Amino acid sequence: MSNSNSSGQFWLIILIVLAVFAGLFVLGYMPRHKQEKARNAEASAITNEAPTVTVAPAKAAPDTTTVTLPADTKSLRETFVFAQANGFVKSWSADIGQKVRAGQVLAEVTTPELDQQVAQARANLGLAKTSYNRLAGVALPGAISKQELDVAKSQYSVQQAALQQLLAQQSFRRITAPFSGIVTQRNVEVGSLVSSSNAPGSQLFKIEQTEKLRAYVQVPQNFAPAIKSGMTADYLVPEFVGKPFKGKVVRDAGALDPNTRTLLTEVQVPNPRGELRPGSYAQVKFYLPRTAPSVIIPANALVPGGTDSRVAMVQDGKIHYQPITTARDFGNQIEVSQGLKGGEQLVLNPAETLTEGLAVQTKAFTPPAKPAGPPPAKPRPNDPDAPRVSSPVK
C-alpha cells in the first residue's frame, strides 16, 4: 500500500509540475501571439494602403517671357579724325571730354613741304600765263599756228588746276570736327609729325555723339522670332542699381550668325543727361511675347532617366505617365510646348516604384520654411559675370 501511495504522489507531483509549465507557457505565448498578430495586421494594412505622393499643378505659361542678355555699348555716331596733309602739329585746342561743334578747329598743322609746292605751282602758273599771253598777242597773220596757241592755253589751264589742288590741300592745315559731339581720344602733341596716309594708329582725335547710345545684343535662336523693331527693352548697368533705362529695338541683322546661332540686335537708349557711357558693359532685358501656347512645370516633375521627356500625373487617383516636349529651361521651371494643357496634377520627384495605373493618395506641395540664421548673400545687381537669364513673367 505504501508503494502505491508513493507512486500516486509521484505522478500527482508530475502532473502538477506539467500543469504549472503549461500555465506559464500559455501566459507567455498568448501576449506574444497577440502582438505578432497585431503587427501582421498593421503591416498588411500598410501594404494594402495606397502610397502618398506630393503633387503640384502644371500652369499655363504667361503671355510674356523675360530674357536678360549681355550687350556691347557704342555711341550713336563715332569717328576718328585723321590729318589730310603732311606736316607738324602747330597747336591743338580740344582735349578729351570736351564738347565740340561741327566745323570747330581741333588742331592746326604747319606744312612746309606743301607750302614749297604751292610756291612752285604759282611760279609755273605765272610762266604759263606769260607764254600764253605772248602767243595770243601776236598780230601778224600766220606767224603762229592755231595748234601752238591751243597748247599754250592748255598748259596754262593745267597749271591753274595744279595750283588749286595744292591750295585745297593747304586748307586741311586746320583740322576740324566732322560733327558735333565729345572728344574721347586725343593722340597729338605740338610738334608731332602727321601724315595723310590714314594708317592704323595715325588718328589724331576720336569724336563721339553720346546723346543716344546703341546697345548690340546677340539674341539666341529660340528667342529670335519674338524680336520686333519698335519693341521696348530695359537697359541695365551695374552702376545704377534698380534704375533701368528704357530702350527701343531699332533693327536686327535679319539673319542668324552661323557660328553662334544668334541674331545681332540693336537697341537704342536715350542718354540726354550723359549718365551712360559708351563702352560700358551692360545688359538688356527683353519682354518677349509668347509665340505659341505652352505650360510651365516644376523642373523636379520630370521623370528621371530615359531618352524621352515625360511626367507622372495623377488622374482619377491613379498614376499616368505622360510624354511631353520641353522648350525653354528656366532653371527650377521648364516650359512644355506639347503634352500638357495646364491644370494637371504632376508628381514631384517621382519614384521608380510608381507604376502606370497605381492607385495613390495626393498631398499638395508646400514651399519649405526659410532656414534660420542670416540670409544668403544677394547676387550683385546687373552683374557682368552673371550668366544669361531667362524666365517667365509672373
Description:
The protein has 394 residues and is of the alpha+beta class. The chain folds into 4 domains: 1-34; 53-62 and 293-368 and 378-392, conserved putative lor/sdh protein from methanococcus maripaludis s2 fold; 67-74 and 211-289, Beta Barrel (Elongation Factor Tu (Ef-tu), domain 3); 83-194, no CATH class. The chain contains 3 helices and 22 strands. It has helices spanning 2-48, 112-136, 146-170, and strands at 52-57, 59-60, 64-81, 87-92, 99-100, 105-110, 174-176, 181-186, 193-194, 205-220, 232-236, 245-256, 262-270, 281-289, 295-298, 310-315, 318-323, 325-329, 333-338, 345-347, 361-364, 389-392. The strands form 5 sheets. The protein has a 6-stranded antiparallel barrel with strand order 3-10-13-12-11-14. A 4-stranded antiparallel β-sheet has the order 2-15-19-18, with no helix packed on it. Strands 7-6-4-9 form a 4-stranded antiparallel β-sheet. Strand 11 (232-236) and strand 12 (245-256) form a beta hairpin. Helix 2 (112-136) runs antiparallel to helix 3 (146-170). The longest helix has 47 residues, at 2-48. It is rod-shaped, with a radius of gyration of 46 Å. The protein starts with a helix and ends with a strand. The relative contact order is 0.18.
